[in-house]
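Q: I'm writing up a methods section and want to include an example of the input and output format. Could you take the sequence below and give the corresponding predicted structure tokens, formatted cleanly so I can copy it straight into the document?
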Amino acid sequence: MVSIGDTKTVIILGEFLIPPDHPFDNVAFWQHGQITPAMFIGRIEVTYEYKDNMYQEKKMEFRSAYIR
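A: Here is the clean output for your methods example:
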């Protein structure tokens, strides 16, 4: 599950036929959410606004191609 604020996204890995020794213990995020050496579950999109003389996060969303 990926949680951002009050929004939770559940992705069921069993549907992807991933061998049990391939998934990482934790999801690694930078721009994409990586769960195995070759599989990404989605991406984080951050919108910034210029406020108080600096860029600050305005909105953060998780986007996944695996949501049905």
